Amino acid sequence: MRAADLYERLEKDFINPALSDVWAKYMESIADFLCENFKSRSMGLVCDNSDKIEKVYTAVFPSDTVMKSILDRGEADAMLFVHHPSIWDIRKAPPIFHQMDRGLLEEFKEKRISIFNLHHPLDNYGEYSTSVSLARALGVKPDKPFGLYCGALCGVFGKTDSAGVQALRDKFATVLGHRASLYQYGTEKMMNQMVAVVAGGGNIIEMLQEIYAEGVNTFITGVSLRSAFTEKSHEYAEQNGINIIGGTHYSTEKPACQAMCGYFKKLGLPAEFIEDEPILEDL
Asked: 43 and 118 in contact (C-beta within 8 Å)?
């Protein structure tokens, strides 16, 4: 497939003028690899290295593990689709996002492997969105979106069949393949069996205020760690009886990146998700 045609299709299907992002200003150390359009709006085509795309790989973050995995396969004329253009690692805070390796970026350029990013465009409520994909993986039936952030509706309310928050936490852990956290600030029973889902780093007070206003007492997200950054959110949840269940940044955004393989296959392109490692310190 012509690379330009693929980029145009992604733009049409996911990016709208209401969305905004700020990645590029933190990526000065690799600015010489970035497209001018990405520098101005921080979404879409990150690195334009190929005229044609024969296969797409998807990943949550462009980590060394992900990039090396593609190179080790001897790929060329391919594209790496990522949810984030930088790499999350809360263990190295501050900062918590780190940039792609310059040596690996050079190899991607030589092998004609482009990089395309949809962060808030993929968070935005829709068929492939991060929170909808996570809700479906958990057996939560999406009902309606919430959580407007940078032009994107990042969260979803939905109904669960789990008997209580501890059972839901256990189910979450099974889906994730690793432990999940539970900060049980509210009752064991979910109000009307409804929960709120925000994949990734959704543990911010504005999201919790909207959840409380909806009469929901259980919140599923990625980064749940009680820290200086999230202390006010935890205090608000504790004061208002909202349970917080966490599953790591990586693991909660993984279902959307896996679902995107289906999107690319519908376009006639082979697509494969590249596994990485969750950072359990997020919990």
From this structure: yes
> Structure tokens of 141?
């039936």
Residue 280 falls within a domain, yes or no?
no
DSSP-based three-state secondary structure for 78: strand
List pLDDT tens digits, range 102-113: 999 999 999 999
Number of domains in the chain: 2
Q: Which domain holds residue 95?
A: 3-122
Report if pTM > 0.90. Answer: yes
Among candidate residues 81, 97, 122, the one where a domain is terminated? 122
Question: Is the backbone of residue 88 left (phi > 0), alpha (psi -120 to 50) or beta?
Answer: beta
Is pLDDT of 94 > 90?
no
- Distance, in Å, from the CA atom of 89 to the CA atom of 39, rounded to the nearest integer, reads 23
Q: Which two tokens stand for residue 159?
A: 């109904």
What would the pLDDT profile of 212-222 be if each residue is shown by its tens digit?
Answer: 999 999 999 99
Spatial separation of the C-alpha atoms in residues 155 and 137, rounded to whole Å: 15
Q: What's the length of the chain?
A: 283
**Residue 93 DSSP label:** P
Structure tokens at 122: 């993929």
Residue 76 has, within 13 A of its CA and on its CB side, a CA count of 4
Task: Give dist(CA 1, CA 53) in Å, integer.
Answer: 5
Q: What is the pLDDT of residue 202?
A: 85
Distance between CA atoms of residues 201 and 250, nearest Å: 10
Domain contains 145: yes
**Helical segments of the chain, H only:** 3-14, 36-41, 64-72, 102-110, 120-123, 130-137, 165-176, 205-213, 231-239, 249-266
